[in-house]
Design brief:
333 residues; alpha/beta; Rossmann fold; five-stranded parallel beta sheet; rod-shaped
Length: 333
């Protein structure tokens, strides 16, 4: 017997399909909504972090720039400090040098002060002597000079001050001295450096004739060798060239100032050249004539003139001569 088949209810199948589709759609919507929420959440979390990193990077770059500037400023300050240290070191060296110079100058000043005091005393004595004698004429000025010599050497300062202010007077005094020696065996003329007026007669005596005396006076007009205003060289060369034990020789030193070193050193140097071994008497007489250029000419150097007077007075005294200090540059002829 056949079983009767139950009829299929189509509505229930369709309903299930609809329910399934709806459920699937809901699930899909939930998945989509969840994904969008997660994405939005990630973006909302990521954006502030990225901005913070950017700000930090900018701050880092800014700090690096400021650090570089500070480093440059520091280097500049260190260079300035180094320059200041060098400047301080140089100033200390200069200060030490100045202190050494002050100490040296103090010693020199002491020596020069002693020499000036000596010169002032000598000049005072000389002025008193001249005042006591009154106003002497030319022949009296050279009076008192021993005239026992047979040979004469003139050592003349040819510096600018002598040539410019005293040269006519120098010529006149040269003539006066020659006049008190009517006849000698030999004459020679040198400057204070030992340079000869007549180089062809170097180391030899000029014959004493009227013509030779006139030639000497005429040559004085043009004779201008270099001078250092110190008679030491001329005196030494004259003694070395012309001294002889059988000759009576006198040196006449003309000058107006002394710009050399120590007066005592000059005196000792001349003593060594002009002393005989074992004897106190000098080899040659040394007479000195002082011209008052720096006492009368404008801008004169009183200090060097005073030192010259002190030196010449002592030099003539030690070497058997006479010091004559003139009180005028005017010619009397």
């Amino acid at each position: 017997m056949k079983r009767a088949r139950r009829q299929t209810v189509e509505i229930s199948i369709s309903f299930l399909d609809v329910i399934s589709c709806g459920f699937g759609a809901i699930v899909l919507l939930l998945l989509i909504a969840k994904t969008v929420e997660f994405t939005a959440s990630d973006e909302s979390q990521t954006t502030p972090n990225n901005q913070g990193v950017t700000v930090l990077q900018e701050q880092l770059f800014s700090l690096r720039g400021e650090t570089q500037k500070m480093a440059e400023i520091l280097n500049s300050k260190q260079e300035q400090l180094s320059e200041l240290d060098k400047s301080i070191a140089r100033l200390r060296e200069q200060l030490a040098s100045v202190n050494r110079q002050l100490q040296a100058s103090a010693q020199v000043d002491t020596t020069e002060r002693d020499e000036l005091i000596l010169a002032q005393q000598i000049l005072t004595e000389e002025m008193q002597r001249l005042q006591q004698r009154g106003s002497p004429n030319a022949n009296q000025l050279i009076g008192g000079i021993p005239v026992d010599s047979e040979y004469l050497v003139f050592i003349i300062d040819t510096s600018g001050s002598m040539v410019d202010f005293a040269w006519p007077k120098v010529r006149e005094e040269l003539i006066n001295i020659l006049d008190i020696y009517p006849t000698v065996k030999g004459i020679q003329v040198m400057n204070d450096m030992g340079d000869y007026m007549f180089p062809s007669y170097r180391g030899k005596w000029l014959p004493d004739t009227p013509g030779r005396r006139r030639a000497i006076i005429q040559q004085m007009t043009y004779w201008r060798p270099f001078s250092n205003s110190s008679p030491v060289e001329g005196i030494q060369r004259a003694i070395q060239a012309f001294y002889a034990s059988d000759k009576k020789i006198s040196l006449y030193v003309f000058g107006d100032d002394f710009t050399g070193g120590s007066i005592h050193r000059v005196l000792n140097t001349v003593d060594k050249s002009n002393r005989r071994r074992g004897r106190k008497t000098p080899r040659v007489r040394i007479h000195t004539i002082g011209f008052p250029v720096h006492f009368l000419a404008p801008g004169g150097r009183m200090e060097t003139a005073s030192r010259f007077a002190a030196l010449m007075r002592e030099l003539s005294y030690r070497n058997g001569g006479t010091f004559v200090g003139l009180n005028s540059l005017s010619e009397t002829r």
